[in-house]
Amino acid sequence: MSELTLDQAQTIVKDALAHARGGKFNALAIVVLDARGALKASAAEDGTSLMRWKVAFGKAYGAVAWGAGSKRIEKLALDRPHFFGAVTHLADGGILPVGGGVLIRDKDNRIIGAVGVSGDTSDNDELAASTGIKAAGLIADGG
Amino acid sequence: MSELTLDQAQTIVKDALAHARGGKFNALAIVVLDARGALKASAAEDGTSLMRWKVAFGKAYGAVAWGAGSKRIEKLALDRPHFFGAVTHLADGGILPVGGGVLIRDKDNRIIGAVGVSGDTSDNDELAASTGIKAAGLIADGG
Amino acid sequence: MSELTLDQAQTIVKDALAHARGGKFNALAIVVLDARGALKASAAEDGTSLMRWKVAFGKAYGAVAWGAGSKRIEKLALDRPHFFGAVTHLADGGILPVGGGVLIRDKDNRIIGAVGVSGDTSDNDELAASTGIKAAGLIADGG
Amino acid sequence: MSELTLDQAQTIVKDALAHARGGKFNALAIVVLDARGALKASAAEDGTSLMRWKVAFGKAYGAVAWGAGSKRIEKLALDRPHFFGAVTHLADGGILPVGGGVLIRDKDNRIIGAVGVSGDTSDNDELAASTGIKAAGLIADGG
């Protein structure tokens, strides 16, 4: 697989937060993971609550772990809560099943990482993540 | 107990994957455990997501741990979620309560291990597992 | 407490990495936590190993958790391993007892966060962290 | 990064075990992980003890996590046990600090996975792993 660079990850963070400020979103936490589920870059805006970054992390981690944007994982969690609960148990970094965890795909459509955003509505969280990913010249897959 | 041999386990993996390729299933992970819940053989096809092998492991582990195919464990999880949740908490390798975790029984009907498959629908996952077990001359018990 | 701002945290990351590149350090991971132990900003340079960011996190988390730079925590770990082992057991984000976890203090000497760096020697890791903290106009306390 | 294929991983397992049988090694467990630390292929020979596969897994996981063969990790563990203990605490799949965890590198020297072998002396374990990796046309790095 091609690798997500730090330069791309920092562009994602910067543009996602610029989008959020432009839209007067609530304070966000944003986490960018590579294809291994390892932390690549992150930022938590001033005023975010104690666990906010963990929610952002879990949205991104679930997307990479499952190979699907967190919006699709939400459907699974709602349809089959017994299965979803068991999977969550196995996930090192947690799995957060609501919109805002967006897969990063390269031009060959391969998964090279994921972005998790938390703080505003899940639609706005997802929009911020997708905007950042596109600004880095990559493909956003929200699920 | 009679013991699952590596030769049998490798036959299970080979024939399960051959069945999956013949049926154009999604990329699968397959895990074969012995009667103690110890890893005997495994394979993850190219393109499987980060956690796929853990889900396959959890289906097989749950089957051995509980002495029942994972399809039967799903009924338990749906009927008594409070109990299932507590049991999951105790399970070293997780318990995944959906089809695709299939007990391996010898000719005397004794449990000698389990196969977990994940990647396609749970019905197809189970079918791949059962096909492999039968190819090794053993009895498949999906629950 | 006064609060570490995202602007300060991003300055720390940027200047720590600039220092590392100037000194031709190995690829680094850097994690900035606020006074609560919550992730504020981070970056992992290209080529860092799978667990590198966790080690950086654990150096910073230990510093905040213990109220001491990780170099001082190393002395504790060496002097009283039984105690250190038990404390580690309680630490959500781990405690890494080697240099490179540096407290961030404001002008009134209050702890407002910590920086963890991992990838080069622990002396160089600490130097990168301290350089970033000073560049943000704050006080670095390596232990 | 280039990706370790299932075909390569199965070649590694087959040739490592053939080498072990030729040398009349004790019964071995062998685990092949990809660059993400995810299980790619494995085999446990008949007669291996209950935890043998976990030791093999931990040798491979430590190598990928740390970006170094497990023989080099052993030196770290002996020199700085307080640090090694803390890192182990953070490792999802465990880190086993003795020879027999061997990095798999591609022709560009990039880490694409690791092999862990356990069952005989650590020198023999490492030899089996390296033999398998070379048979797959890849570079073995034991630390």
Q: Which helices and strands appear, and what pairs or packs with what?
A:
Four copies of one chain form a homotetramer.
Chain A: H1 6-22, E1 29-34, E2 39-44, H2 52-66, H3 70-79, H4 81-90, E3 101-105, E4 111-118, H5 122-135, E5 139-141
Antiparallel strand pairs in A: 1-2, 1-4, 3-4, 3-5
Helix/strand structural class of chain A: alpha+beta
CATH superfamily of chain A: Haem-degrading domain
Going by CATH, the architecture of chain A would be 2-Layer Sandwich
How big a fraction of the residues of chain A is strand?
Answer: 15-25%
Helix content of chain A: 40-55%
Anisotropy-based shape of chain A: globular
| Radius of gyration over C-alpha positions of chain A, nearest whole angstrom | 14 Å
Assigned CATH class of chain A: Alpha Beta
The domain count of chain A comes to: 1
Tally the helices of chain A: 5
Chain pair forming the biggest interface: A-C, 24 and 24 residues
How many beta strands in the DSSP annotation of chain A? 5
What does this entry look like structurally?
4 copies of one chain form a homotetramer. With about 140 residues, the first copy, chain A, is α+β, with helices and mostly antiparallel strands. The first copy, chain A, has one domain (about 5-120): Beta-Lactamase (2-Layer Sandwich), CATH 3.30.450.150. In chain A, about 45% of the residues lie in helices and about 20% in strands. The first copy, chain A, is built from 5 helices and 5 strands. In chain A, strands 2-1-4-3-5 form a 5-stranded antiparallel beta sheet. Chain A is globular, with a radius of gyration of 14 Å. Chain A starts with 5 loop residues before the first helix and ends with a strand. The model of chain A has no long low-confidence stretch (mean pLDDT about 95). Chains A and C meet through helix 1, strand 1, strand 2 and helix 2 of A and helix 1, strand 1, strand 2 and helix 2 of C.
